[in-house]
Amino acid sequence: MTDRPFRFGVVAGLAPTGAAWTETARRAENLGYDTLLVPDTLWTLSPWVALSAAAAATSTLRLGTFVLNAPLRTPAAVAHEAMSLDLASDGRFELGLGAGRPGAEAEAARLGLPWGTPGQRVDQLAETIRTVKETLAKSTADATAGQARGPVLRAVQQPGPPIMVAGAGRRLLTLAAREADIVALGVAPTGTEYDLATKVGELRDVAGDRFDRLEIAYNLAAVAPAPSDLPGWLAGQLGGDPAELARGGSAAILTGSPTEIADALRRRRDALGISYINVNGAFMDQLAPVVEALTGR
């Protein structure tokens, strides 16, 4: 379906010390990963702070939010932070956005912010994307017109950092298909390869001719040699016993040798077009041989 090269990202957002956090970033870079992705929760590091520190500690690693809850920020604030981080990272930033993950309503309440209905949150996400794109375009025009007046804040990447939109519902996928560069597919941990294929089919349906221009991303919750090797603490994240989920065919858990996992990802890319693979940071060492096999790094 696609000859797009593989990309691999590490999803992480917490460390016991600042030094440990920057070491996580450097290790991801040294293992050949393309991106470090930081979630947006109140129990992990602020993505802006964490990615800024990671940018200072690395030189080639790309840096992304995975993903910002659009309802928790004004569109103008997102645009300003995105331009700032893109400049500070020398053009290595990728802006990941979403309409709010399950459970984030409680975090909105802690911040004293309204949460809104699903439809209202999708509308706010659309407004955020529009504002980011308009702000980027204006900053470029101002920089070009006002060179004699001195520097103007603008993104290094032009026309701006790549935009990733994460989602599962049809309305959100429709927005992503129209406005994003990268679409991160939302499939529950219990979802099988069939469910993943169904979601790709839905994206293809709403994207039309734009489908082939989209980079499709999917998040791996875990990788291991066998289901019995999966740690029990994953149950809290996945909502069920990880070994049983793996035996039941969860698309988010891959088990086997590095060669077997690499073959599975090749088949998934060839059949579904999924070429951007992100993995739970706790498993970046386990997936590293697969990264090497599929990218040469």
Describe the 3D structure.
α3 crosses α5 (118-145) and α6 crosses α7 (193-207). It is built from 11 helices and 11 strands. The longest helix has 28 residues, at 118-145. β4 (68-69), α3 and β5 (93-98) form a beta-alpha-beta unit. It has an 8-stranded parallel β-barrel, surrounded by 8 helices. The protein has a two-stranded parallel sheet with strand order 9-10. It is globular and about 60 Å long. With 297 residues, it is of the alpha/beta class. The chain has a single domain, classed as Luciferase-like domain (TIM Barrel, Alpha-Beta Barrel), CATH 3.20.20. Keywords: Oxidoreductase. GO terms for molecular function: oxidoreductase activity, acting on paired donors, with incorporation or reduction of molecular oxygen. This is F420-dependent oxidoreductase.
Within the CATH hierarchy, at the fold level, what is the topology? TIM Barrel
Share of helix among residues?
40-55%
What does the radius of gyration come to? 19 Å
How many domains is the backbone divided into? 1
User: Class, according to the CATH hierarchy?
Assistant: Alpha Beta
Largest sheet: 8 strands, parallel, barrel
Organism: Actinopolymorpha cephalotaxi
InterPro entries: F420-G6PD/mer, Lucif-like_OxRdtase_MSMEG_2516, Luciferase-like_dom, Luciferase-like_sf
Keywords: Oxidoreductase
GO molecular function: oxidoreductase activity, acting on paired donors, with incorporation or reduction of molecular oxygen
Write the layout of secondary structure elements.
Elements: E1 7-11, H1 18-30, E2 35-38, H2 47-57, E3 62-65, E4 68-69, H3 75-88, E5 93-98, H4 104-110, H5 118-145, E6 163-167, H6 170-179, E7 182-185, H7 193-207, E8 215-220, E9 222-224, H8 234-238, H9 242-247, E10 253-255, H10 258-272, E11 274-280, H11 284-295
Parallel strand pairs: 1-2, 1-11, 2-3, 3-5, 4-5, 5-6, 6-7, 7-8, 8-11, 9-10
Helix pairs in contact: 1-2, 3-5, 6-7, 10-11
